Amino acid sequence: MLDLLKQKSFFIVWLGHASASLGNTFSAFAIAWLVYDTTGSKLAMGSIMVVFLLSRSISLLWFGPFLDGWNRKKVMIMAQWSGAITFTFPLITYTLGSFAIWNLVLVLAITGLTVPLYLPSCMAYISQILPKEKLQKANSVIDSTAQLMLLAGPALGGIFLYTFGVEVVLLSLVGLLGTAGLLLTLIENPEFTEVSKQDSWSTKFKEGISVYRQHSFLLGLALLLVILNFCKGALFPMFLPYITETLGRTEFHFGFFEASLGLGMVLGSLWVGFKKTNPLKLRNVLLGSVIIDGIFTIGLGLTPLYSLAILFIVISGFCMPIITINNTTLYQKFVEPHLLGRVFAVRILLTTIATPLGALFGGVVAEVWGINLLFSLVGFLMISVAVSAFFLPSLRNLSITLSKEKTAV
Hints:
By secondary structure, the protein is an all-alpha fold. Helices cover 82% and strands 0% of the residues.
């Protein structure tokens, strides 16, 4: 890790990403509190996030194909500063006592258009400044840092909210996002292949899609990630009723359960970064992690014991970064630099759409047949998809491609 942090631009990106991740965790915390405190409606809490998801999807679909023609450093800075500036609005209105729910609708509509452009630009930028052999470790560092902020954020947000009020939470997230943008002004501007700015949206979109024809295993991995996001989208909103109703525990136990998931993800991220996997066995590792995740998801639906649920969710969390980090690294290695931004945008768009569809599926199944059956169904789906993926020609090509790359090196 130290060799990575000696690279100035990566070190600054890492610090900026940590600041932005903590700020984004604060924003989710503040939004949930403001909506529920203002309306008292669970429906309003879900509906307002639809605004963000819709805006996010429009942004990735429309602006994604143009990302590779824009300066990645400037896009990352713009994304963070736009968040800082827009959240200043509800901070001011709440402080003055004139806050209304439409303030958040406006903020989420704007940030939904700008903030999603940060991640594909960041992932593409990292692939430009680091050699290929360091990408997996770099992605592990970035991902584990984000998970640590996800662990720390709710606790810090709760302390700030209880001690000082929501104004301090909003002020902190504005400061964190502003700091992230300020740090990113210090990174270098690497050169990359010039992209024509005259090409139409459809031309640029087709160029991005062509990558999946050239490297079919990337399409297989993208579809696998979409299905996993659908599954997690079905499960995550049900964690609170699962703990409080199915297992009969309290909100405190729910918080510990969520923290245990985050702990597993941090450990999994670190393991991926520092455990060297034989490239020829990567397919087995990726699909095996999904099968293990599915088995312990079924276990969550079967166990009546809270202690076992904690163990199972840690293991499930551990498995999740194995597929996501390796997925990102393969994109960075095999996609041409001048196409990376739009290809990442397409992948993020697909996973963004899958998550609310999964939430809808999970809500219906849980309401009609119960949470236990939902967990078992989702676990079975994950296992079935992973086992089927072993026989996909596109994923068999992954082993062949990595074998050729290893021979070339």
